[in-house]
Amino acid sequence: MAKHDEVLIALRQIIRATDLYSRKLSKVAGLTAPQLLILQAIDAHGEMTMGDIATEVSVSQATVTTILDRLEKRGLIERKRGERDKRRVYAYLTTAGRDIMERAPTPLQEEFMDRFSRLQDWEQSQILSSLQRVAAMMNAGDIDASPVLDLGAIDRIQPAAEAQRRRPRPDPSFQTDQK
User: Fold this and answer.
1) Which sequence spans correspond to the domains of the chain?
2) Domain at 3-166: CATH code
3) Are 134 and 145 spatial neighbours (Cβ–Cβ below 8 Å)?
4) pLDDT value at position 127?
5) Is the pTM above the cut of 0.70?
């Protein structure tokens, strides 16, 4: 089998693993991976502002707000204004939020990071370098991403100009003969 085929198979396996995990998480807990991470962060801290959550889970405040809106509609969190500073809004887990946390599976990236951290430093550097190269080869180097292994959890609509900028350009060194 050609090396490029093996690379494509490995990429497909990674994509498939994240897809299967996302389906399991959705089936067992009815959550996406970013929703679970946000619930875990709030659970760990007791209360958090939108900015604190965004920093903790490495997503934008706008994304946090959208996810919290969905979690609040499901009765998993509540938002309350601060006692001392009314400008600050804090998110808290509800009883239903704590219940769902108990039956939710461990995030996929936790298992990955546990295994990754056991590798030698040179192995970690080699994997990081290779994955960064793959991302660049797939024109994905400029795509905003958080350290959450999940597919399609955060919908993001790109402005037309941004989508055009990210569209792969034809290689000028590759020309066909037209007669």
Assistant:
1) 3-166
2) 1.10.10.10
3) no
4) 93
5) no
